[in-house]
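Progress report, Aim 2. The chain analyzed during this reporting quarter is listed below.
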Amino acid sequence: MDDVEAREFRVRLLVDVPPSRYAAIVHAVAGVLDAAGVVAGSSIFVDEAARDADLNAAFDDFSALYPWSDC
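Predicted structure tokens for the chain:
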């Protein structure tokens, strides 16, 4: 996607946002992109402090509550 013209927005958070909340925000942004119908052509970049374990745990929490039967 680097070679394609793209629009961009940034979210800046305070440095003391807990990892679990950071991960929840990342997944919420992905959900908004999906709801807007643009997730397939989008990229989300996280900072170097983000850990896969935190992102995966937030996704697991989200998945447990998601109304999959509505899909």
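The helical segments are 19-35, 52-65. The chain has two helices and no strands. These observations will guide the mutagenesis work planned for the next reporting period.
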